[in-house]
Amino acid sequence: LYFNVHTNVNTGGEIRGQIGRSIYTAAMTGKQAGIAATGTGTGRVVLNPETKMADVSFVVKGLTGAPNAGHIHIGAVNVSGGVVVPMDQTASSGGTFTYSKSGVDFTPSQTNTLLADLTAGNRYFNVHTVVNGSGEIRGQIGRVVRFAETFSGAAQVPPVVSSGSGSGFAVLDVATRTISGSMTISGIMPTMSHIHEGAVGVNGNFLGNIVIIFAPATSTTPSVTSQATSATVVQEFLDDATYMNVHTSAHADGEIRGQLDIP
């Protein structure tokens, strides 16, 4: 059973929600695997906590060669972990992976562990090829991931001359409307680091457009964990209209900046 809402534009149904199921999705890319692969994929886990059954699948395309393995691994964003769920291709080199069964019967403890890991964002899909044996594309399950590479003074509005550089990533939990992430900064000494509202080329007002605060303020590796934000910021994050900004004593409004965009 599912709820469905119909409109004149979409008479068959515009928005829908499955009743009694925990549904987790993933967008798979090479950047999440730490390599410059151009392949992509989409996947989902549909968990029924009452019957202890799960349906798991993902589809990939555009790889360097035929996929030779696919799994669910344990690990947070930017963390590699071991295989916890082996997947089978439905056809040789077809790129569609499912569980070894369409529905797998978990014990209560296994279901609780799976649900806890998915809720915490600690599982990811991974697909392997001959060229990239440890994983060519990857997608965090139940999280929206954005990367900012590379920070520069030239990205500031207006541009700033700076010897600083950096990179970072942010992870959105849509269900709880919280953001986590970290930055790595070099060449400058930060006084503050934030995520601001603003599309590419748009200056986010220093005081009015800070949406996520990283700590420690003066660290070159600041981070944030599960900081709450608004529905507006969530949509801006999804629309690639947020950016990371590092402030210094020489440039109080921001010295280096990196736009958060789709990995």
Structural features, described:
With 263 residues, this protein is mostly beta strands. 10% of the residues lie in helices and 44% in strands. The chain contains three helices and 19 strands. Strands 3, 4, 5, 6, 7, 8, 9, 10 and 11 form a nine-stranded antiparallel sheet that branches. It has a four-stranded antiparallel sheet with strand order 12-13-14-17, covered by helices on one side. It is globular, with a radius of gyration of 20 Å. The two termini are 34 Å apart. The mean pLDDT is 90.
What best-fitting shape do the alpha-carbon axes yield? globular
Q: Provide the succession of SSEs.
A: EEEHEEEEEEHEEEEEEEEHEE
- The count of helical stretches stands at 3
What would the average pLDDT be, to the nearest integer? Answer: 90
The separation of the N and C termini measures 34 Å
Major beta sheet, specifics?
9 strands, antiparallel
Flag low-confidence runs. none
The percent range for strand residues is 35-45%
What characteristics describe this protein?
mainly beta, nine-stranded antiparallel beta sheet, 10% helix
